């Protein structure tokens, strides 16, 4: 799960782990590692196949049943519970136990910080990464995630400090993305994003996260046509990413709105509503998914339904430990 891993690297890892499963079919470590791999295949935008999500759930459960103390199994189950938007406390416990078993695994530290951020413990998440930055001084992802959580918690100046620390380690492509977004946040000028986005290597131009950030640049330039053409380059219909989690049709609807094509925008909002409802009915609807549903309903003029969904969501969040910041 190296920070510069691409789709080819994940494909190779998948084939190697499949072979490892043949050699050690009852290995909890191998099962857990395969489940973790499928999580990152989905979360990094390389694959949104429901089959991989099903396999992840199956492998994580089997791995933990075989050995409840195996770090890879604990890590996989914690990631799964986090991904599915389930009760946060068991997910935190699983990730913390995984870290105890692999204290030098920066990836577990990063994912635990992600959980803490989503749970509203933002200062704790950034503090965890601050200590990890000293423990892993050559890992640009650690300060990158501190920059990311700072950005999402409306601290763009702190985000820039962290992202510059990441770039001082190496020209990490994802750091350019958060630097661009922080510049937009501070200035409101999408032209300030361009110099940073232009430094991203060409072989990363087709990466989902790069396209999402380029999309923000085009959105703020109010260039709906170019944004829509950019979205057409990805076949991923349901996006799972730090910058956006939801149906691609939501983004297409906004692009059509910018173009003044209201009928196509309404069609896309309806598609988004249908997709979001399916995820909620299947049990994979997080709070963010429900927030998107309220937005999709409001965009179609379904005000009564939108208000109901928003009020129900607010009630559920205020009785939980989760943060409202990202939503």
Summarize the structure.
Helices cover 71% and strands 2% of the residues. The protein contains 17 helices and 2 strands.
Descriptive overview:
The protein has a two-stranded antiparallel ribbon with strand order 1-2. The mean pLDDT is 87. Helix content is 71%, strand content 2%. The chain is an all-alpha fold and 327 residues long. The chain has helices at residues 7-23, 28-43, 50-66, 71-83, 88-101, 106-118, 122-135, 141-152, 156-169, 173-187, 194-197, 208-220, 224-231, 248-259, 262-281, 287-299, 303-318, and strands at 238-240, 245-247.
- Strand numbers in spatial order across the main sheet: 1-2
Beta content: under 5%
Structure summary, number of beta strands: 2
Compute the average pLDDT: 87
Radius of gyration: 20 Å
Encode the helix/strand succession as letters: HHHHHHHHHHHHHEEHHHH
Helicity range: over 70%
Cα(first) to Cα(last) distance is: 27 Å
The assigned structural class equals mainly alpha
Number of alpha- plus pi-helical segments:
17
Low-confidence stretches: none
Main sheet overview:
2 strands, antiparallel
> Which geometry do the CA atoms define?
globular
């Amino acid at each position: 799960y190296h920070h510069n891993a691409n789709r080819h690297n994940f494909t190779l890892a998948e084939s190697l782990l499949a072979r490892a499963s043949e050699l050690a079919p009852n290995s909890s470590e191998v099962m857990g590692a395969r489940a973790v791999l499928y999580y990152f295949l989905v979360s990094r935008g390389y694959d949104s196949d429901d089959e991989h999500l099903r396999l992840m759930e199956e492998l994580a459960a089997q791995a933990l049943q075989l050995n409840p103390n195996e770090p890879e199994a604990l890590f996989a189950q914690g990631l799964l519970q986090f991904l599915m938007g389930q009760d946060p406390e068991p997910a935190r416990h699983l990730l913390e136990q995984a870290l105890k078993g692999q204290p030098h695994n920066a990836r577990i530290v990063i994912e635990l910080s992600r959980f803490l951020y989503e749970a509203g413990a933002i200062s704790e998440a950034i503090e965890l990464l601050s200590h990890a930055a000293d423990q892993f001084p050559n890992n640009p992802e650690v300060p990158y995630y501190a920059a990311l959580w700072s950005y999402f918690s409306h601290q763009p100046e702190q985000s820039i400090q962290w992202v510059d620390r990441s770039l001082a380690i190496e020209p990490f492509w994802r750091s350019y993305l958060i630097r661009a977004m922080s510049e937009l946040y501070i200035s409101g000028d999408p032209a300030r994003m361009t110099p940073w986005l232009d430094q991203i290597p060409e072989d990363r131009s087709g990466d989902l996260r790069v396209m999402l950030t380029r999309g923000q640049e085009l959105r703020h330039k109010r260039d709906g046509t170019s944004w829509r053409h950019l979205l057409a380059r990805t076949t991923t219909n349901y996006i799972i990413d730090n910058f956006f989690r939801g149906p691609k049709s939501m983004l297409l609807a906004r692009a059509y709105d910018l173009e003044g094509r209201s009928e196509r925008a309404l069609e896309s909002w309806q598609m988004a509503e249908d997709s979001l409802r399916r995820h909620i009915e299947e049990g994979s609807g997080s709070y963010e998914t429900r927030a998107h549903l309220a937005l999709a309903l409001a965009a179609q003029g379904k005000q009564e339904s939108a208000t109901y969904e928003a009020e129900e969501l607010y009630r559920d969040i205020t009785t939980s430990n989760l943060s409202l910041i990202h939503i």
